[in-house]
DNA sequence: AGAATTTCTTGACTTTAGTCAACGTTTTAA
DNA sequence: TTAAAACGTTGACTAAAGTCAAGAAATTCT
């Protein structure tokens, strides 16, 4: 279970750093802003949000790692995103429109998260233009990146995509099971095993 | 060549309809808003924006159809998006940060577009909160959709993806060359030809 | 520590899709 | 209106990746 509410004794440094990376904003603004977030802990393998439910909050990862995945009609799981420390994750569109999400969000390790409710998200949006701005910029970049990844899914082999990911997120490979990486890359665990064998035995 | 500037005799109906679909906003607001956009025509196959250049504007399609594609290191083209009538398209992230885009935007047919410059985009963003809101919502949904498409790229066969697209955008198949569809689906033109043969000859 | 579970590896075989080349058809442009 | 270019189809072959099954290795739980 998630720890109850308002355990406010978390260290906000990481969070503030990430905000400041994106926008230039005063300490007072940040203090007011951070009050809209709530600290929550989750155990390994615990579900943070589930497909078929209306998301109650959106997430910033202080510690740990979680996966976002979708289950196809045929029952196959497909991981679409890993959120490590310093990453935002969630289904804002579903949360804001009060509709069910298609995605599961699960802790891969014990996690410490900051969460923001739909109400507080709306407040932040109304009161802090710099936040809206940073958000929009983030999404604009992210959408382009996703398109690029799709193109790479089309033009590169599994091996090439594996090497790219290894270069881009080396730490990820130390902390998540290999078959999760396979799911994210869109290849079978067996194929990933063979790719690794080929790469490292030559 | 694109026609010069400020040919303002376009019919804004389509554009206004799309805005109203997203937000509830007064006629006065819309009138002021639409002044920030410029009408442009492009001939078939003409490049609207090119990879390696800083995008000068972002786009709404009044008439025609265009493709957004990326060229891989190995020189392979990969179409990531088709924009038909009523669609927004562009590389806002690159435009706003004054950096070069990785994407080409090319007219597939003769096109009539509304374009907005970086300056006017910033104005719209500052002056029309409803626009920012609609924009953000749009991106939030779009990012989720792209993730879903990536998952489908992983779990479905080429044939299944073809049938899905045929159902989702039937008109697209009447107007764009088949090998563009293949590029978008991430399969070779030959494979698409065989998929079609199999589907329609049984 | 030891049993149970999960994860990873390997082999044999199948499926899906890509490549190359040839040729017919359609579209475009001089 | 005809030549050229672009597009689509087909065949033969190849490559990439999936599936199924068995077993080894690692991790988790009690």
Tag the structure with descriptive keywords.
homodimer; 202 residues; 2 domains; four-stranded antiparallel β-sheet; 9 helices; 8 strands; globular; disordered N terminus; DNA-binding
Which fold name fills CATH's third level, the topology of the largest domain in chain A? Jelly Rolls
H/E element string of chain A? HHEEEEEEHEEHHHHHH
What best-fitting shape of chain A do the alpha-carbon axes yield?
Answer: globular
Low-confidence stretches of chain A: 1-5
CATH architecture of the largest domain in chain A: Sandwich
DSSP summary, beta strand count of chain A: 8
What is the straight-line distance between the termini of chain A?
46 Å
Give an overview of the whole structure.
Two copies of one chain form a homodimer. Chain A is an alpha+beta fold and 202 residues long. Chain A folds into two domains: 13-139, Jelly Rolls (Sandwich), CATH 2.60.120.10; 156-202. Helix content of chain A is 48%, strand content 21%. Chain A is built from nine helices and eight strands. The first copy, chain A, has helices at 13-22, 27-34, 92-97, 118-127, 129-155, 158-168, 172-175, 178-185, 189-200; strands spanning 38-42, 47-49, 57-63, 66-71, 77-83, 88-89, 103-107, 111-117. In chain A, the strands form two sheets. The first copy, chain A, has a four-stranded antiparallel sheet with strand order 1-8-3-6. A four-stranded antiparallel sheet of chain A has the order 2-7-4-5. In chain A, helix 8 crosses helix 9 (189-200). The radius of gyration of chain A is 18 Å and the shape is globular. The termini of chain A are far apart. The model of chain A is unreliable at 1-5 (pLDDT under 50). The interface between A and B is large, with 40 and 41 residues.
């Amino acid at each position: 279970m998630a720890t109850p509410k308002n355990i406010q004794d978390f260290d906000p440094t990481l969070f503030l750093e990430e905000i400041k990376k994106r926008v230039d904003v005063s300490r007072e603004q940040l203090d007011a802003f951070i009050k809209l977030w709530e600290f929550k802990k989750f155990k390994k393998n615990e579900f943070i949000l589930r497909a078929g439910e209306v998301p109650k909050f959106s997430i910033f990862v202080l510690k740990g790692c979680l996966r976002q995945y979708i289950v196809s009609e045929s029952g196959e799981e497909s991981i679409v995103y890993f959120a490590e420390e310093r990453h935002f994750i969630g289904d804002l569109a579903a949360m804001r429109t009060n509709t069910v999400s298609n995605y599961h969000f699960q802790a891969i390790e014990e996690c410490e998260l900051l969460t923001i409710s739909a109400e507080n998200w709306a407040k932040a949006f109304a009161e802090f233009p710099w936040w809206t701005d940073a958000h929009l910029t983030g999404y604009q970049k992210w959408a382009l990146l996703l398109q690029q990844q799709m193109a790479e899914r089309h033009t590169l082999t599994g091996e090439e995509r594996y090497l790219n990911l290894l270069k881009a997120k080396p730490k990820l490979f130390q902390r998540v099971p290999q078959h999760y990486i396979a799911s994210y890359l869109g290849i079978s665990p067996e194929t990933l095993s063979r790719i690794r064998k080929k790469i490292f035995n030559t």
